[in-house]
Automatic annotation (TrEMBL):
<dbReference type="InterPro" id="IPR007229">
    <property type="entry name" value="Nic_PRibTrfase-Fam"/>
</dbReference>
<dbReference type="InterPro" id="IPR041525">
    <property type="entry name" value="N/Namide_PRibTrfase"/>
</dbReference>
<comment type="function">
    <text>Catalyzes the first step in the biosynthesis of NAD from nicotinic acid, the ATP-dependent synthesis of beta-nicotinate D-ribonucleotide from nicotinate and 5-phospho-D-ribose 1-phosphate.</text>
</comment>
<keyword id="KW-0597">Phosphoprotein</keyword>
<keyword id="KW-0662">Pyridine nucleotide biosynthesis</keyword>
<dbReference type="InterPro" id="IPR006405">
    <property type="entry name" value="Nic_PRibTrfase_pncB"/>
</dbReference>
<comment type="pathway">
    <text>Cofactor biosynthesis; NAD(+) biosynthesis; nicotinate D-ribonucleotide from nicotinate: step 1/1.</text>
</comment>
<dbReference type="GO" id="GO:0005829">
    <property type="term" value="C:cytosol"/>
</dbReference>
<dbReference type="InterPro" id="IPR040727">
    <property type="entry name" value="NAPRTase_N"/>
</dbReference>
<keyword id="KW-0436">Ligase</keyword>
<dbReference type="InterPro" id="IPR041619">
    <property type="entry name" value="NAPRTase_C"/>
</dbReference>
<dbReference type="GO" id="GO:0034355">
    <property type="term" value="P:NAD+ biosynthetic process via the salvage pathway"/>
</dbReference>
<keyword id="KW-0808">Transferase</keyword>
<feature type="domain" description="Nicotinate/nicotinamide phosphoribosyltransferase">
    <location>
        <begin position="156"/>
        <end position="345"/>
    </location>
</feature>
<dbReference type="Pfam" id="PF04095">
    <property type="entry name" value="NAPRTase"/>
</dbReference>
<keyword id="KW-0328">Glycosyltransferase</keyword>
<dbReference type="GO" id="GO:0047280">
    <property type="term" value="F:nicotinamide phosphoribosyltransferase activity"/>
</dbReference>
Amino acid sequence: MSFQRKLQLATDFYQLSMGNVYYLDNKKDQIAVFDLFIRKNPCDGGYTIAAGLEQIIEYIEQLHFDDEDIALLKKNHPEFDENYLKYLRNFSFSGEIYAVPEGTIVFPNEPIIRVKAPLIQAQLIETTMLTIINHQSLIATKASRIVDAADGGTVLEFGLRRAHGSEAGLYGARAAIIGGCAGTSNVESEYLIEIPSKGTMSHSLVQSYDSELEAFRNYAKYNPNNLILLVDTYDTLNSGVPNAIKIFQELREKNQLGDTYGIRLDSGDLAYLSKTARKMLDQAGFADAIISASSDLDEYIIRDLKLQGATIDSWGVGTKMITSYDCPALGAVYKLSQIEEKGQVKPKIKISNDVIKITNPGYKKVVRFYDRNSHMALADLILLDDEKIDEKEPLEIFDPICTWKRKVLTNFYAKELLIPIFVNGKKVYQSPNIKEIQNYVKHQKQFIGEEYRRALNPHIYHVDLSEKLWNLKQQLIHQER
Ligand SMILES: Nc1ncnc2c1ncn2[C@@H]1O[C@H](COP(=O)(O)OP(=O)(O)OP(=O)(O)O)[C@@H](O)[C@H]1O
Ligand SMILES: O=P(O)(O)OC[C@H]1O[C@H](OP(=O)(O)OP(=O)(O)O)[C@H](O)[C@@H]1O
Ligand SMILES: O=C(O)c1cccnc1
């Protein structure tokens, strides 16, 4: 491909044109605080998995504009001041970023990234951070829902061909692994996330031979250790499964049957076919043969197939995971919450008629409360950075909109969710590898009640505001209205 991407320009024009204003109006060095947060969980679910931080870190570290970029901006935007363009040419991020570690289970309205930096810098990175977080968090969450439906079964990501371009396929595969998929068919992921790709065979291989049996036999010759035969090209139960059994018998007689072998169903009634195929395989002495299935699967169909008693061990999921088909976008936003002007700190608010959309002002942190005995998550609290939690005293928390809904926490401990990623423009955080992120997701799920994780009509997890923050918010609302 001759077209080379330029991530520094993969932003919205308004970021650059506002930068021009900040520069000319001497606002560029005012220290601004922005919060990045989601407003709604994907698929009307009860939680979101934050993913993409590693790519954000890479973006921030590499962010600069070269001579070619500056020439392009100068040509197309004569309103950009000469000195502003010089500023961009010498740009590098010098601020602070706190974020939740990748794979953290998060909920609407709580900051998952907090940026404190000179205004022009903090503004400039908005679009790319949102692009990355919105995409990967969406797919990681979708994958997690699908993995939960498979209830211990293996889920493989097969969606590259249906992704919205190969970049979405690649980062979608990464997110799917974070969400709990055991593997992906995407070979480029071997390079990005350093895990081997996986797969079976397609109908074309079967069709390319004179008979299905001959196709299976030749495939088996070259794939003794990963022998998953696609059995639905002609007639699943009358030809595909019997031919697969014949091949397994031939290999067993020669002592060549590996540990990973079985069949893939790709059409028809997957419950009926898997149950019948299971019986046929068991009767032939192949109880450990894997039955895998694909065909427009998602969390709802997988759950239904399991209710029908489908005997499917491994699920290949493509289109509906990689595109998050029923919920195609996540709407994380990035909002200014504070600005320093001439040494004076000014908390800021954005008012909306939709109460839930009124932003939370100030330089804030987020804590998650856990029960000291069960270690289950109880609620999250957004508070101003200088506030302290006394774990020894009972703590009353309240719903920030329906303030009469209150709860007293006792016997709890609190963990801060935002951790330092960049300080004074320097990275102070080492990203974990993909397996560690996946394990972190799995670990946390045990401590978020299942009522918050169920696919349909989950409970709403509480994200409350401290009294001090709530008061500040009210004060600003009254001041601005
Ligand atoms: N027992 C079942 N219960 C509910 N849904 C099922 C069951 N078996 C299969 N499905 C789903 O039904 C849909 C069937 O898709 P479709 O009608 O396009 O046919 P197909 O069987 O895949 O055949 P073909 O690939 O030849 O078009 C898929 O989404 C599949 O996952
Ligand atoms: O159904 P999805 O969840 O999107 O999973 C990916 C699909 O891609 C393949 O089909 P395709 O018809 O493209 O090729 P094939 O000839 O290998 O079946 C595969 O057989 C799956 O059905
Ligand atoms: O390996 C497979 O079976 C596979 C890969 C991509 C799409 N569908 C199936």
